[in-house]
Design goal:
By secondary structure, the protein is of the alpha/beta class. It has helices spanning 36-46, 63-73, 87-100, 111-116, 118-121, 136-147, 222-226, 235-249, 265-277, 295-303, 318-323, 330-343, 360-371, 390-398, 424-439, 442-451, 454-469; strands at 3-7, 16-19, 22-25, 51-55, 77-81, 105-109, 129-131, 159-163, 166-169, 204-208, 210-211, 231-232, 253-257, 283-288, 306-314, 346-353, 377-382.
Length: 478
């Protein structure tokens, strides 16, 4: 059996990150992420036969190039990686593939199909199959069914499929209890040297350490996708993946891909100790919550190679944080940034504009708050009412959502929510204002010019061009 896996960026379209909950244009991060979930599925497919993985994000690929490659490989199954912001382009590519190769089974997966279930598959009559939820076990069983001649689709939990003119949505699959049963990404099928960090041009990759989050933030899609219970890879599993990446693929830096790296303090210590014992020479970054940091832990992380922590700050107004069920305080934020600074770990603050209760006054307070924190980097977003989130349900019931295509459900895009206290244009304005106020400060620019190499300044200029390319509300709010 032959399986072809595709990250469907072609014809010089904008590259998209399509990795779990992270779905946005690669330009918003000034870099391209390796599609590790696609590579995990590739590893599973290798158990059944030949596999080809093509990441259009790092290939100069035309539609005709793609057709030639598919024809030369001759797949039985073609897997499409998807996300909300890229769904229109992804499905346009999928339809063209199906028109050209009608006998090839076409499978799509990702958060889009998980949050929308049958509604996601219904309009795409050219799709044969789709997966909702964690894809690995469903994909493994699907491969076995295809190998037997497409028998037993109705028994595969988490699968959606077409049969004639009808399509069927099977029952949901339970979350994978033991993450160590998931094979590592088939990085031998990726062009690993093409995934480089924007600030130093070093090769990097993502390593999934855990899945799930116990916190009830109303806007987050992690719980609908990965659940509220945290499941972790063993320290030994993570260490061996790090070793493989360094020794076989020359990876120099890592992003530990999970929601709250320091949620289990003992686990974080054990992983850092294991990295130190193995004397790995690499740097790494992670994300965590501001209330789950202390000086001893940060010193251990720094010693083990951590140089950057992403912090989910979201707002500079306590009422907004409480409305969003963030379960943290502004003092937690100040303390966390100060602790990171003391430990010598850089910080990237993440902020969301347009959460319930947001007004012009609260948005401006958030901007002033983020400027006061002495962060090294920041990212800001517009709140998105994704299906299956509490915010999505609230926005739908209250009629806040503008009628837009699913591709505009974009955490890295413009606002689509009108709560009455702020228009979508206002929310977008404040999100962009936060970027400009933070990155265009004279003292900040002088500091970065002194710190950065020529390459880093070139990358920063690309990021600046991306900010300028975003739709602007030149008149400001109101």
């Amino acid at each position: 059996m032959k399986t072809y896996l595709l990250n469907p960026t072609i014809d010089k379209n904008d590259p998209y990150i399509r990795e779990g909950r992270c779905m946005q244009k690669a330009s918003s991060w000034a870099t391209i992420w390796p599609p590790i979930t696609l590579a995990v599925l590739a590893n599973l497919a290798m158990e059944k036969g030949s596999v080809r993985l093509v990441d259009g994000n790092v290939e100069d690929l035309s539609l005709q190039d793609l057709f030639k490659d598919i024809k030369a490989f001759g797949p039985d199954l073609l897997v499409i990686n998807t996300g909300f912001p890229s769904i229109d382009e992804d499905m346009a590519v999928a339809k063209k593939i199906k028109d050209e190769f009608p006998k090839v089974k076409l499978l799509a997966f990702g958060v889009f199909f998980t949050l929308l279930e049958g509604e996601a598959m219904k309009p795409y009559s050219f799709l044969d199959l789709a997966i909702q939820g964690e894809p690995e076990e469903t994909f493994r069983e699907l491969l076995a069914a295809l190998e037997k001649g497409e028998s037993g689709f109705d028994k595969i939990l988490g699968l959606m499929y077409r049969k004639g003119r009808e399509f069927f949505v099977n029952s949901k699959r339970a979350l994978i209890a033991d993450l160590d049963k998931i094979p590592r990404p088939a990085r031998n099928l990726l062009k690993n040297d093409r995934y480089r960090l924007p600030h130093n041009d070093k090769t990097f990759t993502l390593i999934n350490v855990a899945r799930g989050c116990p916190f009830p933030c109303i806007y987050c899609i992690v719980r609908p996708y990965y659940g509220g219970k945290v499941r972790k890879h063993s320290v030994a599993y993570v260490i061996e993946e790090i070793r493989e990446c360094i020794e076989k693929y020359g990876v120099q830096e890592f992003l530990f891909w999970e929601e709250v790296f320091t949620l289990d303090r003992d686990y974080a210590f054990d992983l850092c100790d294991a990295m130190l014992e193995n004397k790995f020479d690499f740097k790494w970054a992670a994300t965590t919550r501001v209330g789950l940091l202390d000086e001893e832990l940060l010193q251990k992380m720094k010693a083990a190679g951590c140089y950057l922590l992403g912090l989910g700050i979201e707002s500079g107004v306590q009422e907004i944080l409480d409305n969003a069920k963030k379960k943290q305080t502004l003092e937690d934020v100040r303390r966390a940034v100060a602790l990171c600074k003391k430990a010598g770990i850089r910080t990237m603050g993440h902020f969301i504009f347009g959460l319930p209760g947001e007004t012009r006054e609260t948005a401006e307070k958030t901007i002033q708050f983020l400027l006061s924190l002495d962060l090294d980097y920041m990212q800001s977003y517009c709140a998105v009412p994704y299906p299956k989130t509490e915010f999505g349900t609230m926005a739908k019931e209250k009629g806040w959502i503008r009628t837009v295509p699913w591709s505009q459900y974009d955490f890295g895009g413009t606002s689509i929510v009108d709560m009455g206290t702020l228009t979508p244009e206002d929310v977008t304005y404040f999100r962009e204002r936060a970027f400009k106020k933070f990155y265009y400060r004279p003292l900040y620019l002088i500091k970065k010019i002194r710190e950065f190499s020529f390459h880093q300044l070139f990358t920063l200029s690309k990021f600046t061009r991306w900010m300028r390319s975003k739709k602007k509300n030149k008149k400001g709010p109101g």
